[in-house]
Amino acid sequence: MSDGRMTMTRPALLCVLLAVASAATAGDDDGCVPRNFGHGSVACECNSTRCDSPGAVGSPPVGRFLTFLTSREGKRLEKGQGFVRNGTAGAALKLTVEASQKYQRIRGFGGAMTDAAAMNILSLSVGAQDKLLRQYFSPEGAEYNVVRVPMASCDFSTRLYTYADTPEDFQLLNFTLAPEDLQMKIPLLQRAQALSPRPLSLLASAWSAPAWLKTNGALIGKGTLKGVAGGKAHKTWANYYVRFLDEYSKHNLTFWAMTTGNEPTAGMMTNYSFQALGFTPETQRDWVSLDLGPAIALSKYPKTQLLILDDQRLLLPHWARVVLNDIHAARYIHGIGVHWYFDRIAPADLTLSTTHHLFPEYYLFGTEACAGWIPLDRGVKLGSWDRAEEYAHDITEDLNHYVTGWTDWNLALDMGGGPNWAKNFADSTIIVDKTRDIFYKQPTFYVMTHFSKFLLEGSQRVGVSFSAHTDLEVTAFIRPDKSTVMTVLNRSDRDVQFEVWDPATGYIPSVSPGHSILTVIWQAQ
């Protein structure tokens, strides 16, 4: 007998309740809280109690694949899955994985713990700080494994300082870390390391030597080291690097690598508006050969790697030729750091690929990038999809031209794109609104995650061939666990159907929506 109401068994009722609870949890705790600020897409709002997260992601079992989709229309690492097929579905576009074509291995992805980033993170409540750090460093988040650390102040500081501002202190007797290091950056780096399942690769870059070591007597503007390579000023500046490593090691923080200095060409410009130290490729070569290289090699940190340039890729391959063709300098160098700011006028094949083929034993690594730096398009644009596509395009292009990793600039900025003492405001993947104790994850954050979370250190790029012309931008890697990852960027207005053909596994049918980035993961047989 029935009164017309649905009846069900206790197990069935339990299943429904669990499904409802799961859906509620996903909506209340895991899904993006979208905020539209009129810049083409949405930013996702987070606070001390909730923030969307893709969760920990492993390799799918053999015969299955996973997908993650981020799009202009608002999808944020939306997960999908399916079965690898034995036969083709006949898609007009086939992307074939050429596993025998092997290229560079991944070193990592990340961002910079500047003074400004640390100040913004610490302006939040402890709960919101934890949520933010987890977004970057935990297995549930983007899984960044690289953090760039400025040595003393840069433009994204609130004051100008170095660690040795006492004039004529050539022995560095008064060398000391700043409050910005001891009270902000170091504690946050320690917290980030505690969240990360693997050791973080810290990368140090200096903006300027102390003013008393420089020809112009100031931290800003056009100025170089006094004297010549091998001289007292050059040796002191090299020892400054070792002292920095000494002081950070006291806090159990060791550095994977150091650069020879941020944007050395800036210090050669008249009236340059913030911290810089000028080098030409010739003077950088000689300083590395006679001073910095020996100082690091003879220190307690001989395994700390050294990257030259740390400037725009349009300076390649000339800069590399000058430095690396000198055997005395080259023996101390491991890689070449590049910035992204003028990539539009510096073709990747003529700069990155040419340099790789000339010097294949030295890796290329992206050390800085940010949106919102152009004077006519400066500062924060919450929800900007154009900036997300710029990131995705540049990362994909770099990876397809032998770059081994890509480092974003500030980990967090405020709503105005600062603080920045020089008013050189910019955008960031996370924007903090301390007045409301919230932070926004920009579309660029999700683009970074498509690479940092899935291209694990040691992943090796392999070839991809196309059955027909396409506007899709594609890169593929085989990870250390033997799974394959393919990232597909579609900057066009139309959806593109395609299928992946992996001769070792089978066919994966898929679609790339207009203005989206898609990551596909599968396990070889």
Notes on the protein architecture:
The chain has helices spanning 10-30, 115-122, 126-137, 179-195, 232-249, 281-297, 318-324, 327-330, 348-358, 385-399, 443-452; strands at residues 34-36, 42-46, 64-71, 78-83, 94-105, 108-112, 146-151, 201-206, 255-259, 305-312, 335-339, 363-368, 403-410, 413-414, 430-433, 438-441, 460-466, 473-478, 483-490, 496-502, 506-512, 516-523. It is α/β, with parallel strands linked by helices and 525 residues long. It folds into two domains: 62-106 and 460-525, Golgi alpha-mannosidase II (Immunoglobulin-like), CATH 2.60.40; 107-452, TIM Barrel, CATH 3.20.20. The radius of gyration is 24 Å and the shape is globular. The strands form three sheets. The protein has a nine-stranded mixed β-sheet. It has an eight-stranded parallel β-barrel with strand order 6-7-8-9-10-11-12-13, surrounded by five helices. The model is unreliable at 1-28 (pLDDT under 50). Helix 5 (232-249) packs across helix 6 (281-297). Helix 5 (232-249) links the parallel strand 8 and strand 9 (255-259).
